[in-house]
Design brief:
Layout lengths: L1 E6 L3 H16 L3 E2 L8 E6 L4 H19 L5 E6 H13 L3 E3 L7 H9 L4 E3 L20 E5 L1 E2 L10 H5 L3 E2 L2 H13 L4 E5 L16 H9 L6 E5 L8 H9 L6 E3 L7 H6 L6 H14 L4 E8 L6 H14 L3 E6 L7 H5 L6 H24 L5 E9 L5 E4 L5 E5 L8 E9 L4 E5 L6
Parallel strand pairs: 1-2, 1-3, 3-4, 4-5, 5-6, 7-10, 10-11, 12-13, 13-14, 17-19
Antiparallel strand pairs: 8-9, 15-16, 15-18, 16-17, 18-19
Helix pairs in contact: 7-8, 11-13
The structure holds S-adenosyl-L-homocysteine, iron/sulfur cluster (SF4) and FE3-S4 cluster.
Length: 436
């Protein structure tokens, strides 16, 4: 049987699809790259905002039609949507629903579905995914590694703690075994993943931390770069900052969602820091790592957000000058504290206006910050080709760079010189090695 995965949402879902694909492949299923070739489709879903939920439901509608026409045998749902609306999905016609912490069971559940059973499986089997679990990695040079599952923070707007469950760190030794296998397979870059990746190890109570893990990973000669996503402001330790500063393989890049520049809104969001504490953190990181890149997420139009609150966010963004900003309009999520107790009272037009204002501001900041790169030489790891025959890749500060050069392969590290900057990617040419 041929299975096609369609993956929505964050890197954790991408990583989960790789694991589920690996398990199915080992159990004799074929994994195919397009819907046309598939007997079975599994949607690995995201529900972080209403838009994300609508997107997979509209795909699901199309799939149900294909199944009616006899073009598909089974339709399954995995990911965060499963935990949120399993019953509804089965009622609508899904053949099986697999929880976001149950991916180790994908093959068993699928076999039951093939034998005609309508099945929902939401048990927590997250501990049975380890370094020995098979994986079908989509990149040969880069690997996602989930190191901590779930989230304990309960920001009032966020559905993730309800869909991904509580924080659970993987044992450090098991992650190291996974890296050993990756190195053997030729992987050069790794990204440690967690909703609060910097909380890694705290529940293990044995001194394990993200800093120790980065150090241990950097001992592998063939690992060239180590990334980590996403950081929660109050979980970033001095030890982590020091480790990133000293370790040449640790990416000089922190993604630290701030969500708002207004203390009143931060409190309503149950974010556990003030604007000033965040600014002090940025200052501390930038003092220790002067060339660091700091990026963030902001939610626009949170319930009761006034023009004053919004202007505080504007001023905050001007002060920090993030290297990148993900902006999202507030979307009420059923079951969260905000949706229960706070009225979604900023109009749709006003949310759009505030979003555009921030987008425009960030674009100007990006353009200005990127200009500093003009004429500079940086090291890039090749990630692929653009349509017009150029290469693209990232430097250690997570800048996307498009460049020309002689025949290169994905995973090659090259030195390039930037000759043009935009608000988005930087343009460069690779520096010829002198053959002397
Ligand atoms: N753990 C990370 C990110 C989790 S979700 C953190 O602590 O920030 C990714 C992003 O989606 C969040 O940073 C937030 O900006 C956005 N998001 C989450 N819930 C949302 C909601 N209900 N409406 C709009 N954006 C939301
Ligand atoms: Fe959601 Fe907050 Fe947890 Fe991030 S820290 S996943 S925003 S609850
Ligand atoms: Fe979406 Fe779940 Fe990730 S809701 S953002 S796929 S943790």
């Amino acid at each position: 049987m041929r299975v096609f995965f369609k993956t929505y949402g964050c890197q954790m879902n991408i990583n989960d699809t790789e694991i589920m694909s690996g398990i199915l492949l080992q159990d004799g299923f074929d994994i195919v790259n397009s819907l046309d070739e598939a007997d079975i489709v599994i949607l690995n879903t995201c529900v972080v905002r209403q838009k994300s939920q609508d997107k997979y439901h509209s795909e699901l509608g199309q799939l149900f039609k294909l199944k009616k026409k006899g073009k598909l045998k089974l339709i399954g749902i995995a990911g965060c949507g499963s935990n949120l609306e399993a019953e509804k999905l089965l009622e609508q016609g899904a053949d099986f629903v697999l929880g976001s912490r149950s991916i180790s069971e994908v093959s068993n559940v699928l076999k039951k579905a093939i034998s005609g059973e309508k099945i929902t499986y939401l048990e927590d089997t997250v501990c049975s995914i380890d370094s020995s679990s098979p994986r079908l990695r989509f990149s040969r040079h880069h690997a996602w590694i989930t190191i901590i599952h779930g989230c304990n923070k309960f920001c009032t707007y966020c559905i993730v703690p309800y869909t991904r469950g509580r924080e659970k760190s993987r044992p450090l030794q098991d992650i190291i075994r996974e890296i050993e296998r990756l190195v053997h397979d030729g992987v050069k870059e790794i990204t440690f993943l967690g909703q609060n990746v910097d909380a890694y190890g705290k529940d293990l109570n044995d001194g394990t931390s993200l800093a120790r893990l980065i150090e241990a990973a950097s001992n592998f000669e063939k690992i060239e770069r180590i990334w980590f996503l996403t950081s929660y402001p109050t979980e970033i330790t001095d030890d982590l900052i020091e480790t990133v500063a000293r370790n040449p393989k640790a990416a000089k890049s922190f993604h630290i969602p701030v969500q708002s520049g207004s203390d009143r809104i931060l409190k309503l969001m149950n974010r556990r820091y003030t604007k000033n504490q965040y600014l002090q953190l940025v200052e501390k990181i930038r003092t220790r790592i002067p060339d660091v890149s700091i990026s963030s997420d902001i939610i626009v139009g949170f319930p009761s957000e006034t023009l004053e609150d919004h202007n505080e966010t504007i001023e905050f963004v001007k002060t920090v000058e993030f290297e990148r900003l993900n902006l999202a309009v507030y979307s009420p999520r059923d079951g969260t504290v905000a949706s229960k107790y706070l009225r979604d009272d900023v109009s749709r037009q006003e949310k759009a206006r505030r979003l555009n204002e921030l987008l425009e501001l960030q674009k100007q900041i990006n353009r200005r910050l990127n200009e500093r790169y003009l004429g500079c030489t940086v090291e890039v790891i090749v990630e692929g080709n653009t349509k017009n025959g150029l290469y693209y890749g990232r430097d250690i500060r997570n800048k996307i760079i498009i460049f020309s050069g002689e025949t290169l392969s994905v995973g090659d590290k090259v030195t390039v010189k930037i000759f043009q900057t935009t608000a988005g990617p930087l343009y460069a040419e690779s520096q010829k090695k002198c053959g002397l």
